[in-house]
Design goal:
Helices cover about 35% and strands about 25% of the residues. By secondary structure, the protein is an alpha/beta fold. It is globular, with a radius of gyration of 19 Å. Bound molecules: adenosine-5'-triphosphate (ATP) and magnesium ion.
């Protein structure tokens, strides 16, 4: 189905029909501070072995969606007030973040949180704390991370606070990898990084996806980069999915290009406005 054909807030339509569904978010509503309605019925799916991009501008609700899944909202006075979340067919909306990690779901938070005073390797080791593992397994897990992130091996004894932004992002992803997840929720990996480093990180994400079969739900403002690496994408606006489709279709969709590549003319405030504008233009023509 083309992206344009699914251009409205939609029931979860994905390629999940042909692959095992790993994650399913069904019509969730999220409220902060008991009154601020931020997600207004978001539905999405991630199929096994896929990279799914969750796109949208500043404040659209991407991080809120990821935090709803990994149950990190309560720390911010947020609450899922409607809808359900399922991981491999089981309801997970009441599980703690730790329980989810044990089930194989890890989140890498926006802003690449590392313990600044710990070394890169010590940061990575904190990622294994939910697993009871032997020293041998721990060493093997570390080597696996270093295999995918050779830069981290070079910097293993450096204090994280003195490593570059890209290295800190790699440390944050590497730490999640230490828990041997089958799914990673990755929030804005490109934030504040030079384009070359962004590519390097996305190449590693692709590698983890193809070689380790890790599924990804990837929140990104950097739409075009995310769509180059993802299989499928959802566009969020103001707490709602306004469009979804396979990544190639979305990337070549004129409305998406117009809005996200900044080709829009002044005065248009949202993706929906672009749609209205285009419709009017067609009508005038
Ligand atoms: N703890 C909170 N309390 C109240 N409102 C919040 C809280 N966290 C986020 N919001 C609001 O929820 C909306 C969605 O925020 P969210 O961080 O999910 O967006 P986002 O798509 O991740 O944006 P960005 O691309 O800037 O990271 C915004 O309007 C934001 O102001
Ligand atoms: Mg965010």
């Amino acid at each position: 189905m083309s992206a344009a054909a699914t251009a409205t807030a939609s029931p979860p339509t994905t390629d999940a029909a042909t692959a095992t569904k790993v994650l399913s978010v069904n019509n969730i509503e999220v409220i902060y501070d008991h009154v601020i309605l931020v997600l207004k019925g978001v539905s999405l799916e991630v199929a096994e072995g896929r990279i799914v991009a969750l796109l949208g501008a500043n404040g659209a609700g991407k991080s809120t969606t990821l935090k709803s899944i990994s149950n990190l909202l309560s720390a911010e006075r947020g609450e899922v007030t409607k809808g359900t979340i399922e991981f491999r067919g089981k309801r997970v909306d009441r599980l703690t973040t730790n329980e989810l990690v044990r089930m194989g779901v890890c989140q890498v938070m926006e802003g690449r949180h590392c313990f600044q005073h710990l070394t890169v390797e010590e940061n990575l080791l904190t990622g294994a704390y939910t697993r009871k593992i032997s020293r041998g397994d721990l060493a093997e897990a570390l080597e696996r991370v270093y295999h995918y992130f050779p830069r981290l091996k070079q910097r293993r004894s450096s204090q994280s606070g003195y490593t570059s932004g890209g290295e800190q992002q790699m440390t944050a992803i590497g730490r999640a990898l230490m828990a041997k997840p089958s799914m990673i929720l990755l929030d804005e990996p490109s934030m504040g990084l030079a384009p070359q480093i962004v590519e390097e990180i996305f190449e590693i994400v692709r590698d983890l996806n193809t070689k380790e079969r890790v599924s990804f739900l990837l929140a990104e403002q950097n739409t075009m980069v995310a769509l180059r690496y993802a299989n499928y994408g959802y566009i969020l606006e103001n707490g709602r999915v306004v469009m979804d489709g396979d990544a190639k279709g979305l990337a070549s969709n004129e409305d998406v290009k117009e809005f996200y590549l900044g080709l829009s003319t002044a005065g248009r405030k949202s993706f929906r406005d672009v749609k209205h504008y285009r419709r009017r233009k067609r009508w005038l023509a």
